[in-house]
């Protein structure tokens, strides 16, 4: 991926950090964004540069009007010539059952998980080079009914439909668009109930046919493949990376 530029939203921590590190290891110049945790973003950049890679961190709060335009304005200020790979990874959860979902929380989770990826790509149209790649980080929750997180699951279903349509829209330019759907991955978002709780971990592991909790690298390696030339003939798909959950 020498001479390729990659944008990874939410690339400062968790799955996004692993994706940023993987794409940088493959030779891409990586621009990773964060919303709040500047220290984590700096640390990710340092980890990449220490390994001989190229990375920049950008502050980009997603989920409000004008977010995508502001992100790309900051990207342009870095002086990079266009973008080849866009990974819409930044996302938030909403672990609330039907009866307790507040309207503002519903709007917020859709704004971050669906509206932001939509406009990140729309704003990128003039910057994304032909032959480029878009990878949207979805979730197994779009395929497997999980009423305890149903509004979140609906965002990922919408994101997968966006993937489908973007693939058709951008195909004539040789741009592929795919979703990657993780199952339960050991990141900060799950730390509260998963880390240090052997019973919870055993339960989470039992949900995957492969019998363990996912690691950020499990997802990053799939994204690395989809972003590579090897995946040039794959578009409009949801690639399940749940370790075989709900089979
Ligand atoms: N972990 C799982 O089990 C799992 C399973 C299926 C799908 N996923 C999906 O995978 C993606 C990454 O999840 P993760 O577990 O790695 O999450 P995470 O550890 O919570 O990291 C989230 C990343 O997104 C950024 N972010 C959060 N809210 C943002 C906002 N409003 N605007 C801009 N950036 C924002 C964070 O930046 P700051 O640190 O600066 O806030 C951070 O870089 C998400 O789309 C998630 O839905 C995760």
Largest sheet: 7 strands, parallel
Spatial sequence of strands, sheet with the most strands = 3-2-1-4-5-6-7
Provide mean pLDDT, rounded. Answer: 98
Rg from C-alpha positions? 17 Å
| Unreliable residue runs | none
Q: In terms of structural class, how would the helical and strand content be classed?
A: alpha/beta
State the total count of DSSP E strands.
Answer: 7
Query: What's the SSE pattern?
Result: EHEHEHEHEHEHHHE
CA(first)-CA(last) distance: 34 Å
| Helix percentage range | 40-55%
- Backbone shape: globular
Tell me which ligands are bound: NADP nicotinamide-adenine-dinucleotide phosphate
Number of helices: 8
Strand content: 15-25%
Q: What does the model show?
A:
The chain has 247 residues and is of the alpha/beta class. The protein contains eight helices and seven strands. Strands 3-2-1-4-5-6-7 form a seven-stranded parallel beta sheet, sandwiched between helices. The longest helix has 22 residues, at 103-124. The termini are far apart. 47% of the residues are buried. The model has no long low-confidence stretch (mean pLDDT 98). It binds NADP nicotinamide-adenine-dinucleotide phosphate.
Provide a brief overview of the structure.
The protein has helices at residues 14-25, 38-50, 67-77, 103-124, 150-170, 188-194, 198-206, 216-227; strands at residues 5-8, 29-34, 54-59, 83-88, 128-137, 176-182, 238-241. It has 247 residues and is an alpha/beta fold.
């Amino acid at each position: 991926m020498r001479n390729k530029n990659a944008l990874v939203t939410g690339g400062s921590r968790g799955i996004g950090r692993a994706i940023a590190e993987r794409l940088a290891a493959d030779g891409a110049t990586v621009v990773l964004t964060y919303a709040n945790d500047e220290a984590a973003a700096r640390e990710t950049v340092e980890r990449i540069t220490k390994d001989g890679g190229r990375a920049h961190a950008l502050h980009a709060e997603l989920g409000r009007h004008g977010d995508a335009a502001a992100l790309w304005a900051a990207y342009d200020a870095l002086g990079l010539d266009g973008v080849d790979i866009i990974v819409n990874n930044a996302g938030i959860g909403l672990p609330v059952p039907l009866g307790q979902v507040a309207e503002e929380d519903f709007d917020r989770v859709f704004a971050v998980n669906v509206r932001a990826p939509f406009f990140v790509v729309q704003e990128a149209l003039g910057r994304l080079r032909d032959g480029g790649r878009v990878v949207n980080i979805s979730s197994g929750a779009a395929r497997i009914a999980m009423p305890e997180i149903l509004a979140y699951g609906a965002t990922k279903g919408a994101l997968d439909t966006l993937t489908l349509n973007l693939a058709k829209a951008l195909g004539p330019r040789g741009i592929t668009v795919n979703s990657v759907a993780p199952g339960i991955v050991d990141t900060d978002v799950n730390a509260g109930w998963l880390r240090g709780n052997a019973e919870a971990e055993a339960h989470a592991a039992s949900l995957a046919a492969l019998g363990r909790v996912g690691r950020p690298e499990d997802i990053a390696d799939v994204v690395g493949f989809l972003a590579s030339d090897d995946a040039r003939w794959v578009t409009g798909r949801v690639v399940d990376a749940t370790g075989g959950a709900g089979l």
